[in-house]
Design goal:
5 strands; 107 residues; alpha+beta; 3-stranded antiparallel β-sheet; single chain
């Protein structure tokens, strides 16, 4: 299975894949994108699940990397929900990129 990730370059430009259905990012990749540490990420996920905004079973899945290795990945729904919950430069850039794509704004 091919998975895509959202990336940010050194200038703060966000690269959103065209196939958003295959976006699956690990905890580390999301932390790097938003510029937060893992406990902040986990607290955000926990708060979203506790408030029933999203269910953990619908945003997280486990993918097999090899015979003995697997990784938990989060889908686009989790990334978007966290982008609106966390207040960092990276999260703001992701919010803006998502809203631009959604509204087709050309600024």
């Amino acid at each position: 299975m091919k998975r895509n990730i959202i990336t940010m370059d050194g200038r703060g430009n966000i690269a959103l894949p065209t196939d958003t259905g295959s976006i699956a990012m690990t905890e580390w990749e999301i932390c790097e994108l938003f510029g937060v540490v893992a406990p902040t990420f986990r607290a955000g996920i926990r708060a979203l699940c506790k408030s029933r905004v999203v269910g953990e079973h619908e945003i997280k899945r486990t993918i097999r990397l090899s015979d003995k290795c697997s990784a938990e990945v989060y889908n686009l729904k989790a990334v978007i929900a966290l982008a609106f919950r966390i207040n960092t430069f990276g999260a703001e850039q992701v919010r803006n990129a998502i809203l631009k794509r959604l509204c087709l704004r050309k600024e």
